[in-house]
Amino acid sequence: MENNVLKQVFATDVFHDEVMQERLPKKVYASFKEIVENGGELDVAIANVIAHAMKEWAVERGATHYTHWFQPMTGITAEKHDSFLNASSSTKAILEFSGKELIKGEPDASSFPSGGLRATFEARGYTAWDITSPAFLREDAAGVTLCIPTAFCSYTGEALDKKTPLLRSMAAISKHATHTAQLFGHSEVTKVNCSVGPEQEYFLVNREKYLQREDLIFSGRTLFGNKPPKGQELDDHYFGSIREKIASYMKELNIELWKLGILAKTQHNEVAPAQHEMAPIYSTANIATDHNQLVMETMKKVARRHGLECLLHEKPFAGVNGSGKHDNWSIVTDTGINMLDPGKEPHNNLLFLYVLSAVIKAVNDYAPLLRLSASNVGNDHRLGANEAPPAIISVFLGEQLEDIVEQIIDKGEATSSIHGGRMDTGVATLPNFRKDATDRNRTSPFAFTGNKFEFRMVASSMSISDANTVLNSIVADTLEKMNAELEGKTGEEFEKAAKALIQKTLKENKNVIFNGNGYSDEWVKEAEKRGLPNVKTMVDATKYFTDKDVVAMFARQAVYTDVELKAREEINYETYAKVLHIEALTMIDMAAKLYIPSVIKYCTALAESINSVKATGLKATTAVQEELLANTSELLAKAQIALDELKVKTAKAETLEEGEPLAIFYKDDIREAMAALRAPIDELEMIVDKKFWPVPTYGDLLFEV
Ligand code: ADP
Ligand code: MG
pLDDT at residue 239 above 60? Predict the structure, then answer.
């Protein structure tokens, strides 16, 4: 018996390739594999055999239900469960699962956002099995359920989800990057895969304390509260006892993820107190996306078993570092060439330089679209707000590549590569090792890191589908255009043309390359001089869904139709307004029912103290109480005025027309009113006796897990 837990549990809940090979007749398995690898339609006979094997496998493991697991435009996953029970028997449980049920479903999902794509009278939506992402089992209070990853489309074929566009974009990048590889002499390449490794940041807080904060419950972030006296500068040993609890959480999280075949690899504490990170080993984009959704769900589920709550919000605590997701992205041929691997002599690696220049151009041409792909309401508190990547898109290349790019721009080609040299530790017993050619830059939103790009803007709670759909599409489109210029050329003529094209592309797009500190104010000014867009909020970014160049690009790559983009624009505005509405109402509730009454009690206590001291008839001074009472009452009055103002504005919002105007009203007016209410209450938190304070503070939440 295997006694290593990782070996024991890994992928035990996945109907993966090996299980299929084992359980399916050879011929069926072979036709299935053929379709997975080269596309095509699964016929019903084959689907029936697979469904049967899948059901047998699932039932052996206790499954009673199956579900088409899909990713509507809410960004979270949805499912509708059906049991395997066959209606034809009333005395004995006969379990059945047909090919038809495997391939296609019709969830009654008319309540998912569709941005007008589905009026209620034509509310049909279908789920379709994504055969490239394996089915898996999930065990929870509902029992064991067989989950089938599916895409979700409308009756007329429009994508109603986050998976369909991603799959389309993967086809687009495969097509054009394959063409690129072939042009550069790799004629055996037939397909290019996109690899993605998302690093996930999260916070863990004590669940009992969490439950005492309406703001955390309803909006996932604190809407009031002050930075604790000590923050991230705190020494780690302070966390000794916390670590025990977190370690046991991480252990269980890993096991749950491994069971699902998720390659959970790295875990560590992050900069902020109570903040952590998990990074899996990269996999194909659609699988990485499915897995990341499961990672987020599992993080939350396991936390509750440990008396913890997992916060995935981008900015749970103002003034404390927020959470993001680093989306590591590369493209790899079916013959194993990573097209973003510079190799030992990058200056001689023409294919790499060509793809590199295409990525740089794509990012420069579609910077606001990339910004949009990483936007959600929570991320507005990070991007452009003096923290983690700025809202300005730039590309970091590092010393080695920047030198090569300069050589190419100056001379038309590069003739040398800077190498990292050896690292000397100065300790005889430690090995000296080769340094990377480049140090890291943590402030860049889009950084080259060895053999991949790392898109660091993505929001922590968001599906990574949008970001990768955009990356794949814009790079595919750029490669298509560049490839066309080399088509038909061979030998020396080809090489000359390729070099000239790389030079021209780099020259025209060097303004987006920036190796300095992306958090600095100077960069904001410099970027403006360079003409780089600085799209500050999600609302400002949303209009790029229907920008005419964006619409044309997505149409060329067959990733989104204009109707699908319009729908997404609408949903974005709607979501923005809804989230802020909830936040505003929560603030109103907390201020009116918790903070203001508590502060009044404190004022009463102060007044009583003043009176009792005076009643003693002694000459004792009540100056301290009096000053406190004066300050407290003043802030209390301010809070009440701000509360009334927020109420008026929120009521006004309810009368405004939906869409962009409403979103703008929330962004400008409501946010301002929310800040005005928060300020006096946060000040009060600093002077009011803790015993009167109605909710756990940042200090309680961050340091007493
Ligand atoms: P770094 O130290 O540069 O952040 P890591 O090795 O920690 O790199 O990897 C970070 C993430 O990037 C992991 O999820 C890893 O699997 C992923 N990754 C590594 N190489 C690639 C690649 N070629 N394409 C996509 N993701 C990758
Ligand atoms: Mg990283």
Answer: no
Q: Is the dihedral of CA 560, 562, 568, 572 positive or negative?
A: positive
**Four-point Cα dihedral 665, 671, 673, 678, nearest 10:** 170
Q: Thinking of the domain 576-703, which architecture would CATH place it in?
A: Up-down Bundle (1.20)
Residue with structure tokens 């993080």?
Answer: 299
Give, rounded to a whole angstrom, the gap between the first and last alpha carbons of the chain.
37
Question: Which CATH number is 9-161 given?
Answer: 3.10.20.70
List the alpha helices (DSSP H) in 454-595. 465-486, 491-509, 521-530, 538-542, 548-556, 562-590
Structure tokens at 483: 């490839």
Domain boundaries, the chain: 9-161, 169-560, 576-703
Q: Is 464 in the pocket of ligand 1 (CB under 6 A)?
A: no
Identify which ligand lies nearest to the alpha carbon of 295: 1
The pTM score is 0.94
Give how far the C-alpha of residue 74 lies from the chain's centroid of Cα atoms, to the nearest Å: 13
Q: How far is the CA of 289 from the centre of ligand 1 (A)?
A: 15
- The superfamily CATH assigns to domain 169-560 is Glutamine synthetase/guanido kinase, catalytic domain (3.30.590.10)
Model pLDDT for residues 303-348, shown as the tens digit of each residue: 999 999 999 999 999 988 899 999 999 999 999 999 999 999 999 9
Q: Please name the residue whose Cα sits nearest to atom 4 of ligand 1.
A: 449
How many Cβ atoms are within 10 Å of 453's Cβ, its own excluded?
Answer: 25
